[in-house]
Amino acid sequence: MKKNRFACTGGTFDRLHSGHSALLKKAFAISDKVLIGLTSDAMVKRTKQFFENAKPYAQRRKELVAFLDKHGWLSRAKIVVLNDVSGPTVEKGNKFDCIVTSRKTLAGAREINRRRRKNGLKPLPTVMVRIVESEDARAISSTRVRRGQIDRAGRVYEMAFAKALYTTPEVIRFFKKPFGKLVHSNKAFSELSKLKPFKIIIVGDETAMVFENAPPHLKPSVVTVDGKINRRKTSFSPQNHFDKVFRIANKHGTIAKHAARVMEKAVEMKNHDRVLVHIKGEEDLLTLPAVLFAPLDSVVCYGQPGKGMVLVKVTEEKKRQALAIASRMNESN
Asked: What is the pLDDT averaged over residues 298-326?
């Protein structure tokens, strides 16, 4: 392919993933210089799903610069802020040779060329980059990463529960330690407010009891209970309004495939909807799928017997840790 002088491309580049890497690799392989349009926070809010937990422009730009520098491309790049799909690509005096895009963003390239024609400029050739797929043969996207479905390399969290998982002594030891920040129950709301949760997910009856009196901005999206506290039956039943109720069985020391799937459905409900998951059996280990399926920046809350409440801020690192735990669990009786 003939070397171009100046190519252009663009995107949100939130949680820069394998698809972004392929796009940028192609752009710098075919051109001496590359203009990279990086969407503004206002544009992200207008155009992207789960925009609430997208990283702000400054962080996305910093990560993009580090990526370009790592690959030796920074000196050949020009990063500009995008407030609309076209940015400087439709301005006279900017001499671009091509647009580097993929099938997912081809509509944007077509809109750029429509505006160029309107401004009396020649349309730009489009260089297509093959879409990078995740394990489930769907495109890797920042939205799916933010939603908590996949990681940046395309690993699908749902696949960790393709079979029932059974606890091991190692896993029992792990769960005896707090998986997040351990707080006293009477300080849970103040500590939780500091974390600015995208969603709040509760696992456990004792924790659910505390959240019965939560302030409106800290009402949980998902409440998971099994009718027991410290494995003893309780008369407590969540009284707050729920938009959806799931009833499912899950044995002690187990994460049943169907139970994990219900947790996935529960956390995927619209953010303003409230979901009750009532487990026949035991809910303790369902903290794991709750963390793996929750959107980034959510907080999973569960009880630590005799010690208090654990607040798990759902980050990419926490998902990696949860995935590692799931992989160490037995997959046979």
From this structure: 94
- In angstroms, the CA 282 to CA 179 distance is 19
> Average pLDDT for residues 277-302, to the nearest whole number?
95
Which domain does 316 fall in, by range?
Answer: 157-328
pLDDT for 29 beyond 80: yes
Sign (positive or negative) of CA dihedral 162, 181, 225, 223: negative
CA-to-CA separations, 242 to 82, 152, 189, in angstroms, rounded: 40, 33, 21
Task: State the pLDDT at residue 271.
Answer: 66
Q: In this structure, is residue 333 part of a structural domain?
A: no
Q: Which of 18, 39, 35 is nearest to 130 (CA)?
A: 18
> Where is the domain boundary, 147, 178, 201?
147
Prediction pTM value: 0.90
